[in-house]
Amino acid sequence: MTGSPDDLGTHTWVERTGGLLTGAERRGLLRPLASAHVTNAVGRLSMLVGVNTGRRARVAADRLRPPDSALTRAAETEARRRLTPALLNHSYRTFAFASALGALENLDVDREVLLAAALLHDVGLVGPVGGADFTRASEQIARDVAEDAGLSTAATNTMRTAITLHYSPGVTRAQGPVAYLLSAGAGLDVIGLRSWQLPPDILAAAIAEFPRLGFKREFAAAFRTEAARVPRGRAAFLRRYGAFDLAIKAAPFRG
User: Fold this and answer.
1) How far apart are CA 110 and CA 204, in angstroms?
2) 160 and 143 in contact (C-beta within 8 Å)?
3) Which of 8, 46, 73, 208 is the most exposed place for a label (fewest CB within 10 A)?
């Protein structure tokens, strides 16, 4: 069973392939990866010279308030049990940044599913086993949490694919608002992608509430481990073709 070429990064693709990229899939990811780097360079330059759009942007406070439900409480419990403090705070910041970007674009998104996905997207990165992409473990944990919370099958699958897709280059609105915003929020926190679009007070508030705690160093080390463990996976691809260690180090945040 080969699946559709359009399903790269989805939970069904990760289940089928273990997250191992073919040569054609690697080549297909090069263009969105290059585009992300160019966009990041231009956007970061706009921050340096003080003309970035985020300086004039406004985000309503109620769009940033995390939802409270059986699903989000269960996801938070699982995240707190499995993640280090630095990775847990990254997960909270991912949701905050994703919510802010969604508000700026006026996107209608299931915020409970988005929060749960943000909290659980990296749980498989801690103590990974076997030869599959770490998001395979993350989405399986998320699936169990969702099922225990009584989430519908459709919403559960939305969360699972958002998690497995989140670090593929070039995630778009066409892949759904949860996947799109989770990828955007994580990318902003890890390498600063789209940070120029958010108001400085939003960036500062998220970091003040959820300090970085040496996140750059810890995350880069975890990604090196993942790349060595799954040499045909997306982490190895990003490190080889995307100068990912340097991109993490150059993110516009301390620590």
Assistant:
1) 25
2) yes
3) 208
Domain boundaries along the sequence of the chain: 14-249
Tell me the C-alpha distance between 31 and 173, whole Å: 17
Q: Where are the beta strands (DSSP E) in the chain?
A: none
For residue 29, give Cα distances in angstroms to 26, 32, 163: 5, 6, 18
Q: 200, exposed or middle or buried, with CB in 10 Å at 0-12, 13-18, 19+?
A: middle
CA angle 91, 115, 42 (to 5 degrees): 60
Whole-structure pTM value: 0.95
Give the burial string for 72-81 (b: 16+ CB within 10 Å, else e). Answer: bebbbebbee
Angle among Cα 146, 94, 116 to the nearest 5 degrees reads 10
Model pLDDT for residues 67-120, shown as the tens digit of each residue: 999 999 999 999 999 999 999 999 999 999 999 999 999 999 999 999 999 999
For residue 135, the one-letter residue type is T
